[in-house]
Design goal:
Keywords: DNA-binding, Transcription, Transcription regulation. The chain has 10 helices and 10 strands. The chain is α+β, with helices and mostly antiparallel strands.
C-alpha cells in the first residue's frame, strides 16, 4: 500500500509527501537512488540492509532508517527473513530541525523505537484519513507531527546548549510582552507582575541591558508601530493613536512629535508623498 500526496500550500512548515506499508519479498531492494524529500522507513518485522555514504547497516524490527533529500541510498530485504516496514515521506521548513531533535541526521540516519506500536497505528490512521474530505490534509499533518514527536521523545539526549543569562531572558520577556500588548493600556507594574519580578529590580536590569528604560522602550515601540500604520489611508490619526495604546489623540500627537520631530499629520503627508 502506498499513497502519494500533492504539494501542500497550507502546511509549508511540515507536510506529508507520501506514506505506505509493505511486506517485502525476499531480496527486494531499491536503488541506488536519490529522493527529493525526507523519507523514514520503520521496520515492523524481519530484517534487511541499508547503505548510505559508504556505510552499511543491518537492521531489524524496532529500527528504521532516514533517507535525506538528494542523498544516494540503497536498501534491500533479507533473503531468509525479509522485512515488513512502513514509511512516510515529508518536507517543510521544520523537517530538518525536528529530525535533529530526534537525533536523525545524514551522518546518523538510524532510528530506534521499540516502546509500542504507535508508529504502525499512526500509519493506519493515515490510510483511514481518506474518509475525510475537507480536513484530510490537516489530519495527515497532525499525524505526521505525532509520528515525529515519538521519535524526538525516544531519541538520544542532546547535550545542553549554552543558555542565555537570566538577565537576557527577562529582557526578552519584557520585549515580548510589549510586542504582544502595546495596543493595551499597560504599565510597568503590569510587565513586572507578568514576569514575576520586583518593579524596581526589573527596571534596573532592563536599563542595564538595553541602555534605555522600559517606559522609553515602550513609547518608542508604540511610535514605531504608529509610523508603520501611517500609510493606511483608511486609518485616521485618532484610530492610529488608539491602535498603539493612546486613547487621547492629543497626548499621542505630543509624544509622536517629541520622538519623530514632527506632527503625525505632517509625517503622514511626507509618507504619502514618498509613496
Amino acid at each position: 500500500m502506498i499513497e502519494y500526496l500533492p504539494r501542500s500550500k497550507q502546511h509549508t512548515e511540515l507536510h506529508l509527501t507520501q506514506f505506505g506499508m509493505e511486506d517485502c519479498i525476499p531480496g527486494h531492494g531499491f536503488g541506488p537512488a536519490i529522493r527529493t524529500h525526507y523519507l523514514l522507513h520503520y521496520i515492523f518485522n524481519g530484517e534487511g540492509i541499508f547503505e548510505v555514504g559508504g556505510s552499511r547497516y543491518r537492521l531489524r524490527k524496532g529500527q528504521g532508517f532516514l533517507i535525506c533529500p538528494n542523498v544516494i541510498t540503497y536498501y534491500q530485504a533479507d533473503e531468509a527473513n525479509p522485512w515488513s516496514y512502513g514509511w512516510f515521506g515529508f518536507n517543510g521548513t521544520l523537517a530538518e530541525s525536528l529530525l535533529k531533535q530526534a537525533g536523525l541526521t545524514p551522518s546518523s540516519p538510524i532510528l530506534y523505537y521499540d516502546r509500542d506500536d504507535r508508529i504502525y497505528q499512526y500509519l493506519q490512521f493515515m490510510a483511514q484519513s481518506s474518509e475525510s474530505h475537507k480536513a484530510r490534509e490537516t489530519r495527515l499533518t497532525g499525524l505526521l507531527y505525532l509520528m515525529l514527536s515519538l521519535l524526538v521523545e525516544s531519541g538520544p539526549e542532546t547535550p545542553p546548549v549554552q543558555k542565555d543569562s537570566r538577565a537576557e531572558i527577562y529582557v526578552e520577556q519584557v520585549k515580548d510582552f510589549i510586542e504582544m500588548n502595546f495596543s493595551q493600556k499597560i504599565t510597568i507594574e503590569d510587565i513586572a507582575h507578568f514576569i514575576g519580578l520586583n518593579r524596581s529590580y526589573l527596571c534596573s536590569l532592563f536599563k542595564r541591558q538595553m541602555n534605555v528604560s522600559i517606559q522609553d522602550y515602550l513609547i518608542r515601540y508604540r511610535i514605531d508601530m504608529a509610523c508603520k500604520m501611517m500609510g493606511n489611508a483608511e486609518l485616521a490619526i485618532g484610530d492610529i493613536a488608539r491602535s498603539v495604546g493612546y486613547n487621547d489623540p492629543l497626548l499621542f500627537s505630543k509624544i509622536f512629535k517629541k520622538i519623530m520631530g514632527t506632527s503625525p499629520k505632517h509625517y503622514r503627508s511626507l509618507t504619502v508623498n514618498r509613496g
